[in-house]
Design goal:
229 residues, Muramoyl-pentapeptide Carboxypeptidase, domain 2, two-stranded antiparallel ribbon, 8 strands, globular
């Protein structure tokens, strides 16, 4: 079980750094991830992490930059939004669709990874992590189909497989169930509130006012593991 600081990304004592592939994972997740990667290699797929563990400070910098309009904001259907045309309530929701609240990111746990197939990336191509790349005609279609069949054999699942009214579907995001299920249960609204109150979060007053809703809609409302995705 992770302690409060580990759950909210304030401490990384639960994390192991890997050199190949380069990523940072919860120590209980490492062997399962490497086994899945080895199996994928036999199928000609080079699983690489675009994102693994992410600290509170890193998530905070992403959040604050979006709140200030320094990073691109997207609607649920992927269209660019104009920061100066949004109310604060609309701004809050536009961030949460694609970026977790600091302290509430599943990446804090080291159990969750954003995956690509490095073998499938054409020379000069910039990976965007958009659903189209993982669709039937996307560059990661083969990897996605392989993971559909085999990820659960190694304990991994897609927490954002479907649109549940919170986070937009993320076909690249995989979670190691033996760690992440317990972590989500341990991350209470009270712990999150205490963590955010002590932070330099932009929009803090509105976030705290709506925190119970944010917790239920954007943290709890995820897809459960299933045998076949």
């Amino acid at each position: 079980m992770m302690n409060a600081a580990e759950l909210t990304g304030l401490d990384r004592s639960h994390i192991v750094e890997l050199a190949q592939p380069k990523c940072a994972l919860h120590h209980e997740c490492v062997s399962a991830f490497l086994a899945m990667r080895e199996a994928a290699q036999l199928a000609g797929i080079d699983l690489q992490c675009r994102s693994s563990f992410r600290s509170f400070e890193t998530q905070l910098s992403i959040w604050n930059a979006k709140w200030r309009g320094e990073r691109t904001l997207l609607s649920r259907d992927g269209h660019v939004l104009q920061h100066d045309q949004l109310t604060q309530a609309e701004l809050l929701d536009s961030i949460l669709i694609w970026s977790a609240i600091p302290g509430g990111s599943r990446h804090h746990w080291g159990s969750d990874v954003d995956l690509i197939d490095a073998q499938a990336v054409p020379d000069g191509y910039q990976v965007q992590l958009v659903p189209e790349e993982y669709g039937a005609q996307g560059i990661f279609a083969r990897m996605s189909a392989w993971l559909n069949r085999h990820a659960s054999e190694f304990g991994f699942f897609r927490p954002y497989r479907t649109d549940r009214g919170g986070v937009s579907p993320e076909p690249w995001h995989f979670s190691y169930a033996p760690v992440s299920i317990a972590a989500l249960q341990a991350l209470t609204p009270e712990l999150l509130r205490h963590t955010l109150q002590a932070s330099s979060l932009e929009g803090k007053s509105m976030v705290l006012k709506r925190l119970d809703e944010i917790y239920q809609r954007y943290l709890v409302a995820v897809d459960a593991p299933s045998t076949i995705e």
